[in-house]
Design goal:
CATH topology of the largest domain in chain A: FAD/NAD(P)-binding domain
Structural class of chain A: alpha/beta
Largest sheet of chain A: 7 strands, mixed
CATH class of the largest domain in chain A: Alpha Beta
Largest sheet of chain B: none
Number of helices of chain A: 20
Shape of chain A: elongated
CATH topology of the largest domain in chain B: Fumarate Reductase Iron-sulfur Protein, Chain B, domain 2
Radius of gyration of chain B: 19 Å
Oligomer: heterodimer
Number of helices of chain B: 14
């Protein structure tokens, strides 16, 4: 790299010039950093940006902008390929602290110091690009989800490899008589149109369909996956979409609901096949059925069977009852339910079924006799009701995700790796919970789904896709639903949560868009969600590496393998650039071009710590840039105020915070350190899944270090922050400052 | 109601709900009942009922035919229409209760036939249909003596002071019963109403109960 030449630009607009003394700020840059800052009254305007561009033409190759938050005006202050460093003087200084105040001035100076001091430590990242990248997308599963995914990927111009385990396309939809309503007025079963979807996929020349095969091995990384199939072929693909769907819950375990006691007790899947074949008939006598009871939650929401709700069984029973009544209006249909769950527009189907005369009985089924007498503990009548004279009982069984391959034998070394490594039940104790703190749970043993791995990943962290507690593939339901913890591999459809046909098709479209983004970003060496477009990647200095393997174990995405000499080996396109490896490394040997432990500690140390006689404490808030920093920005926008003794250090993720940052902060005289990040646990909001959990885990071990430094463990806390916490966080910060003042000043000040 | 309910037994009938949906006045809307309980909560005489309307409807769904048709809920409804006005699913609760009362009488549920309220309803309807007005003396006399001569005399005498007081304050007169102006027209109206009712229920669902039985069938 050519010689570094840094340009420093201060903005006095948006009220910065009135609230703080910009001349003093300029003096800080000049006297402490020997830099010649330029000030403009509207830096983001054409004139201000033009000034910076003129300097870049004259040789400046690193830009420091001290103006507004790094989250705004990003396009104005982007000077590719040069690096821009931002210091926030607006949201976190003048909008959240009193104008003209001595403390506000010190705050602004410190933020400027934090920006200026990091300049020599960072360089513009060079992307990792190596050889050829495949643009092909592999879709696993040929049901509605997989077919839709293949069709959409082809429509986006990508070659598709569609892999189906069975010998035909269509999946469970082939056995469906009709499908749930998916268009207005949503009140009647609609024709099964899977044949058209199968035909469209077969007609598409970009799609190669392989049937009766499974995946035996997957190696590589996004853009460079090598997928070995059971027919012996090896396929190069860029990204993988998992649409392996579901299987019905094993009804033979439902003896208490009469399954097996009479041939006329059937599951909803069996009943669907009967409806498809024509008028359902009693298996025992061959008579057409005239009165049918649908038993909802058969094995679902039952801790002994499936603990979760499968989302579609209620609507499916409504659909089946309506189909029966539409075929013969005199059919009597009873739906025995605990709670009718008709998400979204399925409510219309519920109303249609009520109008059609389906009889709904709220209660729990106590037993089903061999003569089909269904005894219901009716919750609304408060009595046990024996329903007599039924022709058939349909058990609405739930969905079991195919997050593993149930036909394959479980590999001994692999089964245990399926367990979520973030304890789903016991919330990690962190300060500052919204509302009341959750109570301690008894740890529930996580069931391991049967079968072998779907992809048999050749990753250091094992062959499986991590699963959640109930066996569904790990994903964040709401914020980033298709992401798994294996970059470039996306799940959609019922393998990630129970859903119906229309939802699964929509899901497939979403996952395909992610897959397309994955293959295109991989070729450019750019990161995926949530640091989309980031070109940096972890670099390991092998001279210092002690082969401790903490980085390979802790990486939330399994991006780091071990090579033949047991050194960590980064697979760059698997990496999401969270820096959890960097935070894990005990010898600071992992760093990014523009992000390192050294950079963070330099920033921490650049802050001027007043002595204890000044009465001014200094508190370091290490804030996650995904939720905590934006939330503080919003607090500033709302003019919420918090203590001016606090210095906020944005980090990529709390996972990237090395404990060395914390101990360095305390040894230079900060009075307290607060780590502010997303919610950990099974219902995590961490954008890197495990980052905040790893931070909590590491922090739980800092007590000993602090005691050896003769410091109180209460000086270091972790706080949960969500994007909506703009009103709460200032209070949490102020409470912490008060608590630190109660403990007293850090005795290390001035050393 | 032309059709008797297709009852395998008088006690319990799995098909009862479906039959009510199709044959009872307002039963089609009852299918939409979502058990919110607004009716029971709004009922001014709910305390005097065996079961509130909400629970009664659920019992119908559960097929508890005998318990439904024997309950005093059907007879204690005072037709205030609070529930009908408030029902979020527009279930005409009052109509359903009154029509179920007719079913109970017709299908011979003894408790229904013998209930105080069914006797009073009959007496009330007799007077209203005959004179176009209710005559306090005739209605009460018919009602009291429906329990038998001895009981009727006893009940009549017990209420004598009230009757004397009403006469004294000119709230009750002692002459011929008052009639409406043209009872001939009234007869024609009632005949026409019965005809319309029979026609509207033709083809299964029906209440062929022109001039007897329930009062307040003011649809």
């Amino acid at each position: 790299m050519s010689e570094r030449k840094t340009g420093v630009y201060l903005c006095s607009g948006c009220g910065i010039g009135e609230a703080v003394n910009v001349a003093t700020l300029e003096g800080v840059a000049k006297s402490e950093f020997r830099m010649e800052p330029k000030t403009h009254a509207c830096l983001c305007g054409d004139e201000g940006v033009g000034m910076i561009k003129a300097d870049i033409d004259a040789g400046v190759n690193q830009v420091i902008v001290a103006a507004c938050s790094a989250r705004v005006m990003t396009d104005r202050f982007a000077f590719e390929p040069h690096l821009t460093i931002r210091a926030d003087l607006r949201e976190k200084v003048i909008w959240s602290h009193p104008a003209g105040d001595e403390d506000t001035q010190m705050l602004a100076e410190d933020y400027l110091r934090m920006a200026l001091s990091q300049a020599p430590k960072v360089t513009a990242p060079e992307p990792w690009v190596d050889g050829d990248y495949s643009q092909r997308i592999c879709v696993l599963g040929g049901g509605v989800t997989g077919l839709t995914a293949a069709k959409e990927a082809a429509a986006l111009g990508h070659d598709v490899l569609l892999i189906e385990r069975s010998d035909r396309l269509g999946g469970h939809a082939l056995g469906a008589s009709k499908r749930l309503p998916h268009r207005p007025p949503y009140d009647s079963p609609e024709p099964n149109d899977v044949d058209a979807l199968v035909a469209a996929v077969k007609a598409e020349s970009r799609i190669v369909v392989k049937m009766s095969v499974t995946v035996t091995k997957t190696a590589g990384m996004p853009g460079k996956f090598a997928v070995t199939l059971s027919d012996g072929s090896v396929e190069d693909v860029g990204a993988i979409v998992i649409a392996t769907g579901w299987r019905p819950y094993d009804a033979t375990k439902l003896g208490h609901l009469g399954y097996g006691a009479s041939p006329d007790v059937v599951t909803n899947v069996e009943f669907e096949a009967m409806l498809k074949a024509g008028r359902p008939q009693r298996k025992s006598s061959g008579q057409p059925v005239k009165s049918v009871a649908f038993v909802q939650c058969a094995g679902s929401r039952d801790p002994n069977h499936l603990p979760y709700c499968s989302n579609v069984c209620c609507a499916t029973s409504l659909k089946q009852a309506l189909e029966l009544i539409q075929a013969d209006p005199l059919t009597n249909c009873y739906v025995i339910y605990e709670e009718m769950r008709t998400p979204g527009v399925a409510e219309e189907l519920y109303r249609a079924a009520q109008k059609a005369g389906v009889i709904f009985i709220k209660g729990k089924v106590k037993g089903v006799g061999a003569d089909l007498t269904v005894t219901v503990a009716d919750e609304l009548v408060q009595a046990d009701i024996p329903l007599q004279g039924l022709d058939m009982v349909v058990l609405a069984t739930g969905m079991v995700p195919n997050s593993t391959n149930p036909d394959a034998a479980a590999e001994e070394y692999g089964a245990d790796l399926l367990k979520g490594d973030v304890d789903p039940e016991a919330p990690i104790k962190v300060a500052g919970y919204c509302g009341s703190e959750p109570g301690a749970h008894e740890r529930r043993e996580q069931a391991i789904p049967p079968g072998g791995p779907l992809l048999n990943l050749q990753y250091r962290q094992g062959p499986h896709l991590p699963v959640l507690h109930d066996g569904f593939a790990d994903s964040h339901y709401i914020c980033f639903p298709y992401e798994t913890r294996r970059t470039g591999i996306y799940t959609c459809g019922p393998v990630r949560r129970p859903m119906d046909w229309a939802e699964a098709a929509e899901d497939a479209q979403g996952a395909v868009l992610k897959a397309v983004q994955a293959v295109r970003s991989a070729a450019a060496g750019a990161a995926l969600h949530p640091r989309v477009g980031d070109l940096s990647f972890p670099k390991i200095n092998y001279n210092q590496c002690t082969k401790c393997r903490r980085c390979t174990v802790e990486c939330p995405f399994g991006a780091i393998d071990e090579n033949a000499e047991q050194y960590p080996q980064v697979n760059a396109t698997r990496c999401r650039r969270c820096g959890t490896c960097m935070g894990a490394c005990p010898v600071r040997t992992i760093s990014f071009d523009n992000y390192s432990v050294e950079m963070l500690t330099t920033q921490i140390k650049s802050v001027k710590i007043p002595d204890e006689f000044s009465g001014k404490p200094r508190i370091l808030v290490i804030a996650c840039e995904n939720d905590a920093v934006p939330s503080l920005d919003m607090a500033g926008i709302k003019r919420n105020s918090w203590s001016a003794h606090v210095r906020v250090l944005p980090v990529r993720c709390l996972g990237s915070v090395s404990l060395l940052c914390v101990s360095d902060a305390l040894s230079v005289g900060y009075d307290g350190v607060m780590l502010m990040g997303c919610k950990p646990g099974d219902d995590y909001q961490c954008h890197f899944v495990k980052g905040s959990a790893m931070a909590a885990e590491r922090l739980s071990k800092i007590g000993e270090t602090l005691k050896s430094m003769m410091l109180e463990p209460e000086r270091v806390v972790q706080v949960e922050a969500s994007i909506a916490d703009a009103d709460r966080l200032p209070k949490v910060i102020d409470e912490f400052v008060d608590r630190i003042m109660g403990i007293g000043f850090n005795p290390f000040k001035g050393f | 109601m032309t059709h008797a309910s297709p009852t395998p037994t008088k006690k319990y009938d799995l098909n009862f709900a479906r039959w009510v949906y199709e044959n009872v006045d307002g039963g089609d809307r009852m299918a939409l009942c979502m058990q919110c309980g607004t009716c029971s909560g709004s009922c001014p005489v709910g305390q005097q009922m065996d079961y509130g309307p909400r629970k009664l409807f659920m019992m119908i769904r559960a097929g508890l035919k005998e318990e439904v048709l024997k309950s005093n809920t059907l007879w204690n409804c005072v037709s205030c229409y609070n529930c009908v006005v408030r029902c979020p699913r527009k279930v005409p609760v009052t109509y359903i209760l009154h029509d179920l009362a007719t079913v109970a009488v017709r299908e011979g549920y003894a408790e229904a036939k013998e209930s105080d309220n069914s006797r009073f309803a009959k007496a009330f309807w007799w007077s209203a249909a005959k004179y176009g007005r209710t005559d306090e003396r005739l209605v009460t006399a018919l009602y009291y003596f429906s329990f038998g001569m001895g009981e009727g005399y006893k009940r009549g005498m017990a209420n004598m002071p009230i009757a004397m007081g009403m006469v004294k304050t000119k709230r009750m007169h002692l002459g011929m019963p008052h009639k409406c102006k043209n009872t001939g027209e009234l007869k024609k109206i009632l005949a026409k109403a019965a005809e319309i009712e029979a026609r509207s229920h033709a083809g299964g669902a029906g209440n062929a109960n022109p001039a007897g039985g329930t009062a307040g069938h003011d649809k």
